[in-house]
């Protein structure tokens, strides 16, 4: 596990966008694992700017998103389908057929099983981007998630529902209580993983991730078992780390 502590979130976006652009330029059919939430937005903006300026070609790239809420229509402004379309996909020349996001409508259990199958039958994810919840969740793998878990329907914790309320503030909807998420085992199958963390409210989770004991209490700590993980944390998110790292 490698850790880079940056001075702020802009530096994280700069570093991460450069890594992704480098990968896409070097491997035109790269497979990316993508995350939602506020953390990756600045990175996605830089990917869009680069595509507009340097014409980086996304036509053979495929993507797999980590998660989706259960019960929101894709056009709902709070769905992760909508988020990804607005924040990234509609600005790139990526093919619709190459974009994969779990389907949170209909028979969601079956959808989760099919999503896991799709990932396992596809070429390996080259580069998985992760954010982190203040309770240490990755994707929507909440505390208590098993290391062997695969894509499945999960109940969101009170803490996560509370944290994600801010996105729903301007709509009539309440935060869904369930989601479909790639499992821990699904995430750990990626070739390379980068986790980004900004702000003081992530400091405890970052400490558990980097210096804690591997435990289901902090799902992020399972990343310690992966051979290629890079953590990009700003100073606030890294503020509880002991000097040894
Ligand atoms: C959400 C997502 C996660 C994300 C996390 C952090 O619940 N499911 O994939 O990493 O919350 O979000 P933010 O970046 O907004 O703090």
Automatic annotation (TrEMBL):
<dbReference type="GO" id="GO:0005975">
    <property type="term" value="P:carbohydrate metabolic process"/>
</dbReference>
<comment type="similarity">
    <text>Belongs to the glucosamine/galactosamine-6-phosphate isomerase family. NagB subfamily.</text>
</comment>
<feature type="active site" description="Proton acceptor; for enolization step">
    <location>
        <position position="67"/>
    </location>
</feature>
<keyword id="KW-0378">Hydrolase</keyword>
<dbReference type="Pfam" id="PF01182">
    <property type="entry name" value="Glucosamine_iso"/>
</dbReference>
<dbReference type="InterPro" id="IPR006148">
    <property type="entry name" value="Glc/Gal-6P_isomerase"/>
</dbReference>
<comment type="pathway">
    <text>Amino-sugar metabolism; N-acetylneuraminate degradation; D-fructose 6-phosphate from N-acetylneuraminate: step 5/5.</text>
</comment>
<feature type="domain" description="Glucosamine/galactosamine-6-phosphate isomerase">
    <location>
        <begin position="11"/>
        <end position="225"/>
    </location>
</feature>
<dbReference type="GO" id="GO:0019262">
    <property type="term" value="P:N-acetylneuraminate catabolic process"/>
</dbReference>
<dbReference type="GO" id="GO:0006043">
    <property type="term" value="P:glucosamine catabolic process"/>
</dbReference>
<keyword id="KW-0119">Carbohydrate metabolism</keyword>
<comment type="function">
    <text>Catalyzes the reversible isomerization-deamination of glucosamine 6-phosphate (GlcN6P) to form fructose 6-phosphate (Fru6P) and ammonium ion.</text>
</comment>
<protein>
    <recommendedName>
        <fullName>Glucosamine-6-phosphate deaminase</fullName>
        <ecNumber>3.5.99.6</ecNumber>
    </recommendedName>
</protein>
<feature type="active site" description="Proton acceptor; for ring-opening step">
    <location>
        <position position="137"/>
    </location>
</feature>
<dbReference type="InterPro" id="IPR037171">
    <property type="entry name" value="NagB/RpiA_transferase-like"/>
</dbReference>
<feature type="active site" description="For ring-opening step">
    <location>
        <position position="135"/>
    </location>
</feature>
<dbReference type="GO" id="GO:0006046">
    <property type="term" value="P:N-acetylglucosamine catabolic process"/>
</dbReference>
<dbReference type="GO" id="GO:0005737">
    <property type="term" value="C:cytoplasm"/>
</dbReference>
<dbReference type="InterPro" id="IPR004547">
    <property type="entry name" value="Glucosamine6P_isomerase"/>
</dbReference>
<feature type="active site" description="For ring-opening step">
    <location>
        <position position="142"/>
    </location>
</feature>
<dbReference type="GO" id="GO:0004342">
    <property type="term" value="F:glucosamine-6-phosphate deaminase activity"/>
</dbReference>
<dbReference type="GO" id="GO:0042802">
    <property type="term" value="F:identical protein binding"/>
</dbReference>
């Amino acid at each position: 596990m490698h850790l880079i502590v940056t001075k702020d979130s802009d530096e994280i976006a700069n570093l991460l966008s450069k890594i992704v652009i480098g990968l896409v330029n070097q491997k035109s059919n790269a497979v990316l694992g993508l995350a939602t939430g506020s953390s990756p937005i600045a990175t996605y903006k830089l990917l869009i700017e680069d595509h507009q300026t340097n014409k980086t070609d996304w036509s053979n790239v495929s993507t797999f998103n980590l998660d989706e809420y259960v019960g929101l229509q894709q056009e709902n402004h709070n769905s992760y389908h909508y988020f990804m379309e607005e924040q990234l996909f509609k600005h790139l020349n990526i093919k619709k057929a190459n974009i994969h996001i779990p389907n949170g409508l209909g028979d969601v259990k079956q959808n989760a099983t099919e999503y896991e199958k799709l990932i396992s039958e596809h070429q390996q994810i080259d580069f998985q981007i992760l954010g982190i919840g203040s309770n240490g969740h990755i994707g929507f793998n909440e505390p208590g998630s098993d290391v062997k878990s695969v894509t499945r329907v999960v109940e969101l914790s009170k803490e996560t529902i509370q944290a994600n309320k801010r996105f729903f503030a301007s709509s009539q909807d309440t935060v869904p209580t369930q989601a479909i998420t790639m499992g821990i085992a699904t995430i750990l199958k990626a070739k390379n993983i980068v986790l980004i963390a900004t702000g003081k409210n992530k400091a405890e989770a970052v400490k558990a991730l980097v210096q804690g004991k591997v435990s289901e209490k902090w799902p992020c700590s399972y990343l310690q078992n992966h051979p290629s993980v890079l953590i990009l944390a700003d100073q606030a998110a890294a503020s509880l780390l002991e000097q040894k790292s």
